[in-house]
Amino acid sequence: MSKGRRYSNEPKLNMKKVFAVLIFIAVVIMFVVIIKKLVTKEETNTGKLSALNYFTVYTNNKWGVIDSLGKITIDAKYDEMVLVPDKTKDVFICTYDVDYTNNTYKTKVLNSKGNEIFTDYDIVQPVYNKDKNNNLWYEKDVLKVQKDGKYGLINYSGKEILKCEYDNIETLLGIENSLLITKNEKVGLCNNNGEIIIQPEYKQILSIGEDYKNGYIVVNEENKYGVIDFNKKTILKPQYDEIKNIADSGKYVVKVENDLKIINKDEEVLLEKGFEDITSINGNNIIIKNKGKYGVIDINGENKIEAKYDKLEYANEEYYIAKNGNLYGIIKSNGETGLDFNYNSIIYRKEAGFFEAEKQDEMVTSIYNQDLELKLSGIINEVNETKGYIRIRENSQYNYYNFKFELKDAKDFLTTNTIFLNKKDGKYGFVDKDGNVVVDYIYDDATQQNLYGYASVKKDGKWGSIDANGNVVSDFKYTLENNLKIDFIGKWHLSEDLNANYYTDN
Fold first, then answer.
1. Could you report the per-residue pLDDT of 394-439, keeping only the tens digit for each?
2. Residue 35 lies in a domain
3. Is residue 95 a part of any domain in this protein?
4. pTM here?
5. Per-residue DSSP letters for 111-151?
């Protein structure tokens, strides 16, 4: 009973105040939700990635790092270029104390907070690679490290994936996921996960084709050639005088003494006559060279295309790109001419399925479909095989086509954009997805909004940039006459050297 009396004597709740507090809390929650939605909407409308990207920046003769919002991440205070091996990762390699006389230097790795990471190693480097056109790239999620004079590998999380016990590590040029490892003057190979594919016991390792899945040519101390595939299996024992860098499933071009032969993985001879040299195998068709001229025979040695061309390149099962004198054309697989020899260059877009042909005295590119029908003619600005579009300048107008050569709106492909380039009365402006004018037609030239929400605009002969809302971000002070690509992130513009891939305000 006493419990009951104490309870009855306690102060009662003021329900009006309770309701007021609850209403206040509800309003606060609603306000927070609305603000969050607005912020989310603003971030979406900028066209920026949900996660920040990072880029090297050069200003006032110093190097640093910016993010995809254009903000400084690492202060520009380094004399040597700060390397960003992967723009999606906050891993930045800074080089300092460089002694050019003795060729020595030090490195440290910083994250986006400016904290030093991977401190267990004396030197940390990206793993460089480049293709046949000297286009540079860094291998994915792998860094080369040095400790006590020996090299190993770590990933971008700092995990050691290959111990520091090798004299050198370098890429097999042009081939992804293939790293040459040297130990005691012998060469082996590992992948980007640090898995040993070929033990370091060879004199040399070469590529087959342009894909690591084709396997590798190995050369032993007796200068004999063999083949090991990317699953570590020996396909051909090292017993040949040469194996050519030609890729085709299960077929290899080998030399025994002075004789070239095509063999299979069981070392059976498939073809050994009818050619002086072989440059390509595509299924049962083989590009051969005789007396300085190129043609095609099949695996049975029968002539398909007479050896009379100065260059021959496989495009697809039906066509070859041929060179006759200084001009290019297209030859059908039966030897007939598909496209006359009127062009200074022809390339085949395999993923898109069309040909691009150019004449030296014309400033346009002609696009032919698989039936060699002329579909488009203009200045190609971009071929995006991921999103499936061609951006081409026709009669001073940028147009978008899909790979069926159907004219489309930019918004059909640029789904993250908030504003879209448009032209009227010889001037450029920007509209929204509904066609409403966001930026007046006042610019002499312009680019579409990039992935980070910025568009480049030109006025009175100078370039600047605008943001996702059309507001000017960078003043118009850059001529950029030598830039192959015009691109801005905030106030920073892309450098002339696309391989260097840095931004600057110079």
1. 988 899 999 999 999 999 999 999 999 999 999 999 999 999 999 9
2. yes
3. no
4. 0.86
5. -TTS-EE-TT-SEEEEEEEE-TT--EEEEEEEEEEEETTEE
